[in-house]
Design a protein that fits this description.
Two copies of one chain form a homodimer. Chain A is α/β, with parallel strands linked by helices. Chain A has two domains: 113 residues, D-serine dehydratase-like domain (Lyase, Ornithine Decarboxylase, Chain A, domain 1, Beta Barrel), CATH 2.40.37; 162 residues, Alanine racemase (TIM Barrel, Alpha-Beta Barrel), CATH 3.20.20. In chain A, helix 4 crosses helix 5. Chains A and B meet through helix 3, helix 4 and strand 10 of A and helix 3, helix 4 and strand 10 of B.
């Protein structure tokens, strides 16, 4: 059902780790695997959720950086568009044919603003602002390119990272945007990043209840000033049910739901609602020191949110990673040289960014190979 | 003096973050900067060291993954060749013209062995083995390609990762390699990875004294069996002075010396002998929440060995990274929107692997832009 869109003239093992039709055991490791059945089920679960709740999904593409997955999310997964986090990520997505993108971030550098504005000639581009001093530069870039940029006011609803203070400062910024030539005020960005990974459901709910009060108050103040928040965006895989139930947010920005990772599994538990669809395939390359060592290290797996989990091999666990090696604990001594294991990354977003290709498998067979379209696009 | 070798038809800001001749403030961030003066001084310091000590340098290219830097190390930095850690890394280096490569690792998968053997048609290729059962596959791959593969016996000299037991098991493996068609026994790989980052000089010296005894005994046993260890390889930036002084090792495999990083600075102190030559250039993009936020997050900086250090801005420090943001502590409130900062990565190797380009600067001017030749080549 999923077609290979982009592979040509590739040499397996150098340019790509696999080709469609290969058996799983022929894939060169380490490789980034997608279980396509699991991905499609995650896609469908989220589609059903947003349809039933009557909210939009603007799937966050910083998780996967793949135009193929973005297209699936928009064509079959109920997404109205995608989020990107960087201008170059949006550029890669527009080049690959995606035409409705929120850069869910502040952009301040004038050269980046020019790039962003030029992009708006080819796609709907929305961007965030959290500072009245940003408005003139945004306006100037839009006018320079002869486009209209849609702008969300990002508020700090609890994460303490970016975002203007909710309430009056946010309302005044909305008014400034609405008054600026070349800009269209499009709503509020209210994403509580820190809440996503809080350890318990009660803590996450509590954080979003507090964010909801701040967001609602801001939306109402903006409405009282005569402006409409067409978009009230936010939410991630850790909290989206709360935002969807609030009646305040109307656009969810979940990203990790499509893959899940070991950290979200730890936080959300077995009933997270989504399956692991992303794995790093790795091979045992040494047993000489009495411990199994595989070929996936720090350049193959991001460890900022903890070590990877070992998939479907009871008793085997990851003890540590070095640059190019993974050391496993295998108390029963069952692992053999060249044996393949699937590791569940601790954190999917920075792990995907380490690879050039996704190897999409169905059962034990490679069905497709997709480029990681925006891999390394961080500027 | 350093030439730009590889740039063509690039569009600044999308394909590359900078072009030669640009001022530093025009570079699109985040970008991976090399201070070329510092790099050249590090290069020269190590060249002088190995020349004075009468040992060879086989610089580890897993640190930088750059054919341009590998060439500098071989042409001006006293290196006899390079180390790679993966077959695909070696493939990328051979494609770029490097012709003397040790894959300082075990290779067990038959398809990878075939790729490695084919590479030996175009370059001197040396590889490691730590298991008698590996010999037949290595031999078969070499004969299949009609080449001779040079093989080092990797011993576990204290790191407890890969490597056969020193002494008799290592000697017997050396004899098996020497007897196998298509293979040439070339010596010993004795790298103590764990020792590099031990907290004190005394601990590092102690670890290498112990590794030295095991390595010396193994070399002597192999000599008694009638074989010569042409290469006794090992050492990293944390311990190389000890290996060089031992009289046992004859080929040092330092990698990080060329760049230094915050972790090695913590471990080795101010007198490490090498300067910071690698930086991540990042821009302030938000001050709205009262804390400065820049545009370099977990996809721009590896954090496995700690957070980055802030270069040349007293009092400003990194408090944390999320996927796309760096949060700074700036108690004096000196940072401004779009201000550029240089961050010293916690760990250089996995940080370089996140980028497509090095931006080589001299003073405030971009002199060259080099591709990260083997970026993402991990299979």
């Amino acid at each position: 059902m999923i077609q290979d869109l982009s592979l040509r003239d590739a040499e397996p093992g150098f340019d790509v780790p696999a080709l469609p039709g290969m058996a799983l055991h022929e894939v060169q490791t380490p490789a980034l695997l997608i279980d396509l059945d699991a991905l499609e089920r995650n896609l469908e679960r989220m589609r059903r959720f947003v349809t039933e709740r009557g909210v939009r999904l603007r799937a966050h593409a910083k998780t996967h950086k793949s135009a193929d997955i973005a297209r699936l999310q928009m064509e079959r997964g109920g997404a109205c568009g995608i989020c990107c986090q960087k201008v170059s990520e949006a550029e890669a997505m527009v080049r690959a044919g995606i035409t409705d993108i929120l850069v869910a971030n502040e952009v301040r550098d004038p050269a980046k603003l020019d790039r962003l504005a030029r992009l708006a000639k080819r796609a709907r581009i929305i961007v965030c602002a959290d500072d009245p001093e940003a408005v003139a530069d945004l306006s100037s870039a839009a006018r320079g390119a002869g486009v209209t940029l849609e702008v969300l006011v990002e508020i700090d609803c609890g994460a303490g990272r970016c975002g203007i203070a909710p309430g009056l400062p946010a309302r005044d910024l909305a008014l400034a945007i609405a008054a600026a030539p070349g800009l269209r005020f499009a709503g509020i960005q209210a994403y509580h990043g820190r809440a996503q990974h809080l350890a318990t459901e009660a803590e996450r709910r509590c954080a979003i209840v507090s964010a909801e009060a701040l967001t609602r108050q801001t939306v109402e103040m903006i409405a009282a000033a005569g402006l409409t928040c067409e978009i009230v965006g936010g939410a991630g895989t850790g909290t989206y049910r709360h935002e969807a139930a609030s009646g305040v947010w109307n656009e969810l920005q979940c990203g990790s739901y499509i893959f899940m990772d070991a950290d979200y599994r730890r936080v959300l538990g077995p009933d997270a609602g989504f399956e692991h669809a992303l794995f790093v395939l790795t091979s045992v390359m040494s047993l000489a020191s009495g411990r199994a060592v595989t070929d996936a290290g720090l350049k193959a797996l991001a460890v900022d949110s903890g070590l990877p989990a070992v998939h479907s091999l009871d008793g085997v666990s990851c003890k540590g990673l070095s640059d190019e090696h993974c050391q496993l604990d295998d108390p029963l001594g069952r692992l053999r040289i060249s044996q393949r294991l699937q590791l569940i990354p601790g954190h999917c977003d920075p792990t995907c960014n380490l690879y050039d290709w996704y190897v999409g498998i169905r059962g034990d067979r490679v069905e497709t190979v997709w480029p990681v379209t925006a891999r390394g696009k961080l500027y």
